[in-house]
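Appendix C: a fully annotated inverse folding record. The material below is reproduced so that readers can follow the format used throughout the book. The structure is listed first as tokens, followed by the designed sequence.
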């Protein structure tokens, strides 16, 4: 796990020693163990290393092959690198690193090397003979890759602020995607909130040759065929795939720990790790004063069962409050989430752990979110569309008038839609603001809803999937990748901690998406997952209700954070892109207790304002 950076000259020769140093210095937190650069007149490559595989200096980057022709910078882990390496017996390896395996695989198989990798990665390989730059990002999109392309340069990095620190990219806010951020906490697809800066999409590779960039998908949902497996066969395959995913992610030359919340997903991760390990697992649990949210007793039960080296990290809510400034400064991209991840990563790293397993993904794959049930219920009631649309809109208007929260607004919006499908329904379930409210807050035109466009493009891919699998795709495309995984990366790497996510092994993702609803959800959430891996966790854990820790953010914004919040809101309201009257009206309404204005909406405005200021946009 590391940070990468690079500058490719187009149409000219120039050395960028200072610029590449500035870029790698900006991401020093991602790789505190080593740094390096390679610079010639055509390209500059930079790297910050967090040493996980092959801790020797020979495995430092940028790495060059034995011929001196190819140079690589790479961030992430290819978990099956040993298996891939066994197929490359003719290559003269000099290290035990997965970095060199990627390099050798590309030299041997070209673009097809990507089909052989199982991991999370973003990398760039420079062929100085052909003057071709090859870039790639993992299937699910766990590792980031930002870039800017102009007539003069191709600039890339693991972080947006590193790209901007090159001095070769204009600091300008991308107005067209402000609406997307307000609705979804992120700009979608290949877009960012900085004008001219994009990101390589998940499951894509790119080739820059003769000053042209061509990006191509190498993985997607379209090849997933419906499964005919019965429940027993599905249980066996889920068990085999999950255990193998854990096995691969335990490969490391440093100790691998695990976040143990006491919930189903993290408990199963720890159980399988203990089963596959000859040494006790290091586990970490966050506990709170608020007993209604404290899961430490359940976590301790699992830790005791599997004899882990267990650490209970006690966090008081005020620690979140005092860390707000550090949390905001750690956001490479603005987000409404993040405080929990920031402090969990901070405390885990302070215990000397560099790698931690996470239970992220269980909800997305095994129907753990209530949104999945809502989506299914809506889609099963297509008969409502036979009602005249004007009548449905009239009923929706009555619901809105009588409603007291955003759930009423969402229902009214659904009734007014001309058609019900993944592209129209699922975005509504994930929006923090409705499109009309966003238009009121902005003075600049709202960009097209790229979430709907993206899901519309995927409509053929999901046409053979049942409702829950389609909802998983909707979740992946609206929240999981561009918010959840992004925040996990930026908040963990702020402390030099690598987080591995076994539920998002692409093989397990593909298989669960192939399953019909009655197999995936026989009667309760995550039942298939629990049955597949039974009896590894106690029934008290598998049967209990889902818990979550909620910070008293509404109270803090109105009291302890009122000065910071007011400054940020005032700054945002004064900018040309925002409707000053609407922003201030919402702020005043929130302070006075208007229940229709959620603290999450106000917090997004505060975070966005802070991020714009920090990056001089």
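Designed amino acids, in order:
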């Amino acid at each position: 796990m590391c940070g990468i950076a690079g500058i490719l000259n187009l149409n000219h020769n120039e050395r960028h020693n200072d610029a590449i140093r500035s870029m790698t210095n900006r991401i020093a937190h991602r790789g505190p163990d080593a740094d390096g650069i390679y610079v010639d007149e055509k390209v500059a490559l930079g790297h910050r290393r967090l040493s996980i595989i092959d801790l020797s200096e020979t495995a430092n980057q940028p790495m060059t092959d034995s011929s001196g022709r190819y140079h690589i910078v790479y961030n992430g882990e290819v978990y099956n690198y040993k298996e891939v390496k066994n197929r490359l017996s003719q290559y003269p390896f000099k290290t035990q690193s997965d970095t060199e395996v990627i390099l050798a695989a590309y030299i041997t198989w070209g673009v097809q090397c990507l089909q052989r990798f199982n991991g999370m990665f973003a990398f760039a390989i420079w062929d100085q003979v052909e003057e071709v730059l090859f870039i790639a990002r993992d299937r699910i999109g766990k590792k980031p890759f930002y870039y800017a392309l102009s007539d003069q340069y191709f600039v890339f990095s693991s972080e947006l602020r590193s790209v901007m620190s090159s001095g070769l990219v204009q600091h300008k806010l991308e107005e067209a995607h402000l609406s997307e951020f307000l609705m979804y906490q992120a700009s979608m697809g290949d877009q960012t909130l900085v004008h001219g800066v994009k990101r390589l999409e998940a499951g894509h590779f790119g080739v820059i040759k003769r000053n042209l960039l061509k990006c191509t998908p190498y993985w997607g949902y379209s090849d997933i065929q419906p499964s005919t497996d019965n429940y027993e066969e599905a249980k066996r395959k889920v068990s085999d795939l999950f255990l193998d995913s854990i096995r691969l992610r335990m490969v490391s030359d440093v100790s691998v720990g695990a976040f143990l919340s006491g919930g189903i997903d993290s408990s199963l991760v720890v159980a399988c790790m203990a089963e596959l390990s000859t040494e006790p697992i290091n586990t970490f649990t966050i506990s709170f004063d608020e007993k209604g949210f404290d899961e430490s007793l359940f976590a301790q039960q699992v830790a005791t069962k599997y004899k882990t080296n267990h650490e209970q990290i006690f966090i008081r809510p005020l620690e979140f409050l005092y860390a707000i400034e550090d949390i905001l400064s750690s956001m490479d991209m603005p987000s409404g989430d993040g405080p929990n991840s920031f402090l969990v990563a901070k405390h885990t790293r302070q215990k000397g752990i560099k790698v931690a397993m996470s239970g992220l993904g269980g909800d997305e794959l095994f129907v753990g979110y209530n949104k999945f049930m809502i989506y299914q219920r809506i889609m099963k009631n297509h008969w409502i569309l036979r009602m005249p649309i004007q009548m449905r809109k009239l009923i929706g208007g009555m619901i809105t008038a009588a409603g007291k929260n955003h759930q009423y607004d969402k229902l009214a919006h659904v009734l007014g839609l001309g058609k019900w499908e993944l592209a129209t329904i699922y975005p509504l379930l994930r929006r923090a603001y409705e499109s009309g409210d966003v238009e009121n807050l902005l003075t600049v035109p709202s960009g097209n809803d790229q979430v709907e466009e993206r899901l519309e493009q995927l409509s053929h891919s999901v046409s053979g999937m049942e409702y829950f699998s389609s909802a998983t795709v909707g979740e992946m495309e609206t929240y999981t990748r561009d918010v959840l995984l992004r925040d996990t990366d930026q908040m963990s790497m702020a402390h030099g901690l690598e987080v591995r996510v076994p539920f998002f092994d692409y093989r397990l993702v593909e298989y669960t998406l192939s399953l019909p609803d009655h197999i995936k959800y026989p009667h309760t959430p995550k039942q298939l997952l629990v049955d597949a891996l039974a009896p590894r966790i106690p029934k008290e854990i598998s049967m209990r209700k889902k818990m979550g820790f909620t910070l008293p953010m509404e109270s803090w914004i109105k009291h302890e954070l009122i000065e910071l919040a007011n400054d940020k809101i005032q700054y945002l309201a004064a900018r040309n892109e925002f409707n000053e009257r609407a922003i201030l009206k919402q702020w005043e309404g929130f302070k006075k207790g208007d229940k229709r204005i959620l603290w999450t909406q106000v917090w997004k405005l505060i975070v966005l304002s802070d991020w714009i200021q920090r990056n001089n946009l």
